[in-house]
Write a sequence for this structure.
């Protein structure tokens, strides 16, 4: 009998000479993927997102073009970067020259040779204990990705950007990344996902991140794929004592997008700040699924995800916060405001707090609304037409998340992309 | 410039304005006074086009046009300005950006050239100084976190930027201490001109010591029941609104 993984994915070739531990990990993951199957809406974690349209098709790991034409943004050009197209490195567009001492940025395939022991110890160790079909699929089949290691106390002069570009018909991209920050290290990392406008297929990414004590990471997920391309990705992040994490997930593109961000606060005084903006138009479906686990006392987390949904777009926010029994003096806040711009747009928001400690401060709030009529009237009374007033207010709603981004060129790029999507001509 | 004839208006089916007549000429300053619930603020809302107010009868002509036919933004472009009793906070939109959008929308509506960033900045700095505000206000979100006095100053700043033909100031004095009131009044007085009229709506005589009206009207139960010059305000203060009600009856 053909296994699910073979029905779902075409063109898989096992690389020669792969280490035995990796081959065996891949086989186990493939078995688990076959056993789990593609999630259905009966699965509580997939209640609001149907994969039916996506599941019955076949995807090819070779369908993307390695030499696809890619126009890098000005912001990307200003960063250390690895640019992947069709699953392989585009070395002409990549540039990691001049990295400071103590910083390694390399291909996962290279790192598997040069840093094998380290990767063997870490790879998949950060993945969830809960079964996760797409994380298993990635482990079973990934070929390439980025390995980033920032040595003890090291800092960078500019951000590191990973660009994953997809093209072609029914392509499957499987980026696998590992980001390690040693004690006291600081880094800004961007994962940018793009595709050709008419590309179809799926990007199934998985990133494992380990933040040692007192390290600091600004982690960006920028999703700008074409309107026919799907994305199911995840990041699994472990935080040590005193570490600080900012995640910024901005989803403007894609057809069906699912982001799973999982943060475990494992050392005291750690802080996780997760922000997100999803702006869906047409028939986009954008699902953000986050889990923050407070495992020890005295950590703080803050989550702000904002959604704008127009046309027939649908948004999902599932924010799970677990405060374990020992995690006293946890402070956690979660907010998920949503703006519906059309009668046919829809959002499902589900905060899920599981608190097993008794001395904690946790708050959460989700709202679904339309534009404020008092604000609209105020603007109109100043001569601003209704359509422009609506646009301005929508933009202002989005701006709060964008403004928190610390990289000026990226912030400006996103602000202008959002403005374009809203048909604003001047800002 | 403005002519209101037999205006009737309701809110959620309850009649509030019941046959109001008022005419304002160019360059005139009018004040409407009256007890709470007499319909003063409803008049301001109807004139500026708030859509939860329904006009059931009557006619309003402004600058030769049927005002009630126009959208709120078209009214503003025609030169009508409302200073809000409770200015609205708009987090995320900077005061500067908002005023530029507003000034240029009004200019465009009037068939004038839009101001570029430099000309706008020059103009706004001048007006900010007039209102004794700090430049920092321009970079904050519209009214967000402003004190009561700052909000009212911001209203008059916008009026100065938009140069309206008719400014309706709805309880511009409410919630202001005497120093703030003086600044607001100074801002309004500085804008007096032959082709700019002002309609002040107020509960208190105090405002009229600082912005002196040419005409005072007393409103009760949705109509103007008495009009006079500024001496009427003094009489009102002495005798209260009850005196007028009896007088009118």
């Amino acid at each position: 009998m053909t296994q699910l993984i073979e029905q779902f994915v075409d063109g898989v070739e096992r690389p020669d000479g792969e280490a035995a531990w990796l081959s065996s990990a891949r086989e186990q993951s493939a078995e688990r993927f076959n056993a789990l199957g593609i999630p259905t809406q009966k699965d509580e974690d997939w209640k609001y997102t149907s994969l039916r349209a996506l599941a019955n098709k076949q995807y090819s790991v070779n369908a993307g073009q390695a030499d696809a034409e890619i126009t890098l943004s000005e912001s990307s050009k200003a960063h250390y970067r690895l640019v992947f197209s069709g699953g392989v490195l585009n070395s002409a567009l990549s540039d990691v020259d001049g990295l400071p001492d103590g910083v390694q940025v390399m291909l996962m395939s290279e790192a598997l040779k040069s840093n094998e022991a380290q990767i063997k110890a870490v790879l998949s160790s950060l993945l969830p204990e809960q079964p996760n079909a797409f994380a298993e699929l990635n482990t079973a089949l990934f070929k390439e990705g980025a390995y980033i290691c920032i040595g003890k106390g090291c800092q960078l002069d500019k951000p590191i950007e990973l660009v994953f570009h997809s093209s072609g018909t029914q392509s499957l991209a499987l980026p696998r990344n590992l980001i390690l920050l040693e004690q006291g290290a600081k880094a800004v990392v961007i994962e940018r996902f793009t595709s050709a406008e008419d590309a179809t297929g799926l990007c199934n990414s998985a990133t494992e991140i380990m933040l040692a004590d007192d390290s600091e990471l600004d982690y960006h997920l920028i999703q700008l794929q074409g309107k026919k391309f799907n994305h199911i990705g995840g990041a699994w992040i472990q935080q040590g004592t005193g570490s600080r994490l900012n995640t910024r997930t901005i989803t403007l593109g894609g057809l069906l997008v699912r982001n799973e961000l999982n943060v475990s606060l494992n050392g005291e005084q750690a802080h996780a700040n997760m922000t997100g903006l999803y702006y869906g138009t047409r028939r986009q479906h954008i699902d953000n699924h986050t889990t923050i686990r407070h495992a020890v006392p005295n950590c703080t987390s803050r989550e702000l995800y904002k959604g704008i949904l127009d046309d027939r777009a649908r948004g999902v926010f599932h924010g799970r916060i677990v405060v374990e029994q020992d995690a006293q003096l946890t402070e956690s806040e979660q907010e998920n405001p949503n703006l519906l711009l059309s009668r046919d747009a829809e959002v499902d928001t589900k905060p899920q707090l599981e608190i097993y400690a008794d001395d904690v401060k946790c708050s959460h709030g989700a709202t679904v609304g339309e534009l404020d009529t008092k604000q609209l009237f105020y603007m109109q009374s100043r001569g601003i037409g209704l359509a422009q007033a609506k646009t301005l207010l929508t933009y202002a709603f989005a701006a709060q998340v964008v403004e928190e981004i610390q990289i000026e060129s990226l912030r400006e790029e996103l602000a202008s992309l959002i403005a374009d999507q809203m048909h604003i001509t001047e800002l | 410039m403005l002519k209101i004839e037999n205006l009737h208006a309701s809110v959620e089916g309850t009649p509030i304005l019941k046959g109001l007549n008022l005419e304002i000429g160019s360059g005139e300053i009018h004040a409407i006074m009256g007890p709470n619930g007499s319909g003063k603020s409803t008049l301001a809302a109807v004139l500026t086009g708030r859509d939860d107010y329904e006009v059931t009868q009557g006619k309003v002509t402004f600058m030769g046009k049927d005002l009630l036919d126009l959208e709120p933004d078209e009214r503003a472009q025609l030169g009508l300005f409302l200073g809000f009793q409770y200015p609205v906070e708009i987090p995320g939109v900077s005061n500067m950006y908002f005023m530029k959008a507003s000034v240029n929308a009004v200019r465009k509506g009037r068939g004038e050239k839009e101001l570029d960033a430099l000309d706008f900045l020059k103009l706004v700095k001048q007006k900010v100084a007039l209102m004794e505000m700090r430049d920092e206000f321009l970079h904050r979100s519209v009214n967000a976190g402003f004190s009561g006095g700052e909000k009212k100053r911001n209203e008059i700043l916008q009026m100065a930027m938009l140069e309206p033909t008719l400014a309706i100031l709805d309880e511009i004095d409410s919630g202001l201490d005497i120093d703030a009131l003086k600044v607001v009044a100074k801002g309004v007085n500085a804008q007096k001109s032959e082709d700019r009229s002002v309609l002040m709506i107020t509960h208190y005589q105090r405002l009229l010591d600082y912005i002196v009206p040419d005409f005072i009207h007393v409103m009760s139960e949705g109509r103007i029941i008495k009009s006079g010059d500024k001496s009427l305000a003094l009489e009102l203060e002495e005798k209260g609104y009850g005196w007028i009600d009896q007088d009118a009856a």
Notes: Chain A has ten helices and 23 strands.
